[in-house]
Design a protein that fits this description.
This protein is mainly alpha-helical. Helices cover 75% and strands 0% of the residues. It has one domain.
Amino acid sequence: MRALLRLSGLIDAMNDGIGKLVYWLVLVAVVVSSGNAVVRYTFNSSSNAWLELQWYLFAAIFLLCSGYTFLRNEHIRIDIVLGRFSKRVQAVVDIFGIVAFLFPMALLIMVLSWPMAKDSFVTNEMSSDAGGLIRWPAKFLIPVGFFLLSAQGVSELIKRIAFLAGLIDEPGEKMHGHS
């Protein structure tokens, strides 16, 4: 189990690092959006590429931070109900949710989106809008984002099982617990 907890720590560190890096894309998106608006209203000029870049940045932020959001326990939950139960019951419910819902959904989306992303890359798919961007970078964000979410699901599953086995004090604590 210690090896699995180390794996969980590596997954956590990966998603934490990616999440903190992707924070900067929010600033880039704001600059692109603001710059596009200033140019559009000041010079009565715009490009579909700028609008698509905003869409790509939003997709990157949303998809690449899904694992980070799960790591930080900031995803949507039913805490109003679940919060009334013990930490052990919460861990069991989390395990069930990860195995029965998160993994099937995330793996299905990852598997189904991969051929679409690969085909887009192979054909060098372009936007159908005049002046638009290539599509494959945005399409690759889908399987990558769901891979990161699935990996974090593995980490959270390991932590919940370790908590139930008495190896860690809290599921969010990774390896702080009994030696």
